[in-house]
Every structure is written in structure tokens, then in C-alpha cells.
Design a protein that fits this description.
There is one protein chain. 78% of the residues lie in helices and 0% in strands. It is built from three helices and no strands. Helix 2 runs antiparallel to helix 3. The longest helix is centred in the last third of the chain and has 23 residues. It starts with a helix and ends with a helix.
Length: 63
């Protein structure tokens, strides 16, 4: 077993403020897309996926 302080953590490379901003922005764009398309679930899901992808990509480039 590895000590948590020794190994760091599984998600230490994630910059959480950037991830939360990306998710919030993605959901905002997803809601606009949902209104345009008339499909709430698809718009929100697509916005959430784009927000998470932005947050992960931006976090990886910062690490």
C-alpha cells in the first residue's frame, strides 16, 4: 500500500478551479444549445462534455 502523502493523488494534475470554470461555461453554452435545438438533455450533456474536456485539456497543459 502506498501512503497518500507519498504518492500524491490520482488527480493531482487537475487544476480544479479551471475544471469548474470549464464545466460552468460548458453548461451555459449547453443550455443555449438546448434552447436552439429544443432538446434539453442533449444540449446539457454536450455542454457538460465540452466543459470537462476543456478543463482536462487546460489542466494538462498547466501541469
Amino acid at each position: 500500500m502506498t501512503d497518500e502523502s507519498e504518492a500524491g493523488g490520482r488527480f493531482d494534475w487537475v487544476h480544479w478551479p479551471t475544471m469548474l470554470k470549464g464545466i460552468a461555461l460548458g453548461l451555459g453554452v449547453g443550455l443555449v444549445l438546448a434552447v436552439v435545438l429544443g432538446d434539453l438533455y442533449f444540449g446539457v450533456l454536450l455542454g457538460l462534455v465540452n466543459g470537462v474536456a476543456f478543463g482536462v485539456g487546460r489542466s494538462r497543459s498547466r501541469a
